[in-house]
Write a structure and sequence with these properties.
By secondary structure, the protein is of the alpha/beta class. It is built from twelve helices and eight strands.
Length: 314
């Protein structure tokens, strides 16, 4: 369970999505009474769609609320919000699986970060490194975004500020070779976690996507189970386009988790619900700001309350 401070911070950071969704919900009903008819359900589904929950999740939630209204008492906007939080939590809880370093012989835990350009992947890799470091684990970073010189420099700058080593080569080097060197270094140093930052690539570019497959193959030659985790980073502001990105990367490299970033700057935070509904992978973290501590472990019910603005969320 998240701390009170973390929950409050999440509530504040999701204000754009909440303002959009709550404003729409408030407009469905007159006064303090709720009268449900087909028009209200249709309008409610429209509000969920506009918050980027997607068709599948929005339809499922409205169907569940219809059944709740039939069997229980929902007679005020606040009771509707609580019911909505419950139904959102049902969907979101399927993705609430923390990313932890397993005990035993898996050393290092190899995490491959993937995603399109501009989603905050390199920054998320550094924030994830800081998270594991704070938990008492040794961490090493692999700068495998060799297509963009600034990405190497950015990761090295993060590594210096955090006191975390970065394995890198020059701009234009073979990314798979860098990944191999990073894994070799992590093994020789007895490092707990190796985080590999890959180049941002458009999910519709087959050649670039295939390069990720090469990184995975090279890693697996050194450790048959590596990478142990493959995390897709998506920008919440892209809305439903995040779903097509997830589908493409899942097909090409297989995903174990999705990190959703930049939730503080968009009214489209409902896309987290759409992702949880459509993809059977974890959402271990969400990004709610630029600070190093703004990569938060995902808590389903806290997130649902912050989206809806129900009592107890602040």
């Amino acid at each position: 369970m998240a701390s009170d401070t973390e929950s409050s911070g999440l509530f504040a950071r999701l204000k754009k999505t909440r303002a959009s969704l709550s404003g729409g919900l408030a407009g469905l009903f007159g006064g303090n009474r709720v009268h449900f008819d087909d028009a209200v359900y249709d309008d409610l589904e429209d509000q969920l769609l506009m918050a980027d929950l997607g068709v599948e999740a929005s339809t499922a939630i409205v169907s569940a609320l219809r059944e709740r209204v039939r069997t229980t008492q929902i007679d005020s906007p606040e009771s509707l919000k609580e019911a909505l939080v419950d139904e959102l939590s049902v969907i979101l809880t399927t993705a609430e699986r923390p990313l932890a370093v397993p005990s035993g012989d898996i050393r290092p835990l190899v995490i491959l970060m993937v995603g399109v350009n501009g989603v905050g992947k390199t920054t998320t890799a550094a924030k994830l490194a800081a998270h594991f470091q704070k938990s008492g684990h040794s961490v090493l970073l692999g700068a495998c975004d060799t297509f963009r010189a600034a990405a190497i420099e950015q990761l090295q700058s993060w590594g210096e500020s955090l006191g975390i080593g970065v394995i890198a080569q020059t701009h234009g080097a073979d990314a798979a070779a860098v990944a191999h060197d990073a894994l070799s270094a992590a093994k020789s140093r007895g490092t707990d976690v190796l985080i590999i930052d890959s180049a941002g690539r458009q999910h519709v570019n087959a050649d670039l996507m295939a390069q990720l497959g090469k990184i995975r193959r090279v890693l697996s030659k050194s450790d048959a189970a590596a990478p142990h985790k493959t995390l897709l980073v998506v920008d919440a502001g892209t809305g439903q386009n995040a779903l097509s990105q997830a589908a493409a990367f899942e097909k090409e490299v297989g995903l174990t988790g999705i990190c959703v970033t930049k939730l503080d700057g968009t009214a489209r935070g409902g896309v987290v619900v759409a992702l949880a509904k459509q993809f059977p992978v974890a959402i271990p973290f969400v990004g709610v700001g630029e600070g190093i501590a703004d990569l938060r472990p995902f808590q389903a019910r806290d997130f649902a309350r912050a989206l809806v603005g129900s009592p107890g969320a602040e």
